[in-house]
Amino acid sequence: MISDFTALRAQLANGRTSAATALSACRAQAHSAAGKLAYTHLDTHENHADRSAPLHLPLAGVAVSVKALFDVQGWVTHAGSKVLQAQPAATTDAVAVARLRAAGATLMGQTHMVEFAFSGVGTNPHYPTPAAMDALWGRDLGDVYVPGGSSSGAAASVASGSAWLGLGSDTGGSIRIPAALNGLVGFKSTANLVPLQGTLPLSSTLDTACAITRSVRDAITAHEILAARRITRSCAPLAAWRLAIPSTLMLSDLAPAIAAGFTRSIALLRQAGAHIEEIALPELDALPAIHRRGTLAAAESFAWHEPLLAQHGHNYDPRVRQRIEAGRHMSAADYLRLHQARNDWIAQVNARIARFDALLSPTTPITAPLLAAVAPASALDPAQDAARDAAFVTANALLLRNTGVVNMLDGCALSIPCHLPGELPMGLMLWHGAGRDDALLNLGLLAESSLLTEALRQGAQRAQPLHC
Fold it and tell me: Which partner from 34, 229, 266, 367 sits 20 to 30 angstroms from 142, CA to CA?
């Protein structure tokens, strides 16, 4: 079994497979019953220039999916909405897309996403919702669970085997949440490292262009391409790093499965030599007060959507429209005070965590909800629709809670799988403030190896990538 695109590239280099064979296998998965729901548009032109990219390019032979809020030349950037479907096709690629193409990637298609990227659950009433998958671990989940959002199709494409890398965005957890719920790796870099030109915005302050992959070493390659920079590599052992667990907020109201998985993961890391300290981080409890008059995502999304809402508001997902409309009544003073409060809060948090190399938390406090419990309204049963809306609000708030802290911090974070065979997928999140990307990725290689060793011992079906 090929574990990730790093392993695929090795097979291409030694002639054990070809780019055409690898891409053909991905296309077959994209057209399968499970795989096709990951996409809202599949490329039917089979870009031969990309297929024959020189093998020395880092993504030659690698299939990549693109979230539908990135411009791709010749495709309509609809962001999962009905409102934008009649817009002209993009005439140029977004910077992130152009960098992937230049690295030799073949674009499979546009992926399913939450309308305008404004939810962590992954549903969209305009398109069938792809199910959460756990293809890497060889399990059949049986029941249909939500994929997480907003980069729902990005995760589904990678988990189903139609792409090796899913380009997406993360404003409050939209890469890390679906990565965790699908048993994948999601890296949210420091926001300003990857240009957002050619990307439809949700929050100009919080948006980050980043990717979902099958391994941390793939995440490193993806980040180096997207950010046009090199990660400083380290082979220092786990014992050389200073790690902390913030007990405030991040460990509250955990589902029993998440609590057990997180406790087990920490124990495994300690067995591997990690020194981990539990700390209080009271600043996290201040976030509700900071957001008392509204959020940056609400204010900035409403400013962008106001003209569209006036003309096409009836065509929006009602759940998404409600979240955008929350910014309508924020004043300019509210918005400016929110930025100042955020800056002050970032300084306080960074001062408290500066002596650590990374913090450890569950990526999400719950596992994936059943799709039937939070599905979009059907208008056939008002009572059921009301119950689903209420369940959606609760699930959305919980899914975004831990990950959103990092976006508010202007930080970086890595989610790696930490479940065992027989368990629903869940993620361990390594995180810190801005500019700590290299340390997190190096630590992620070590943590991934420790957690995966135990999963393999328990019977997981996945090859072990080497980190040094």
Answer: 266
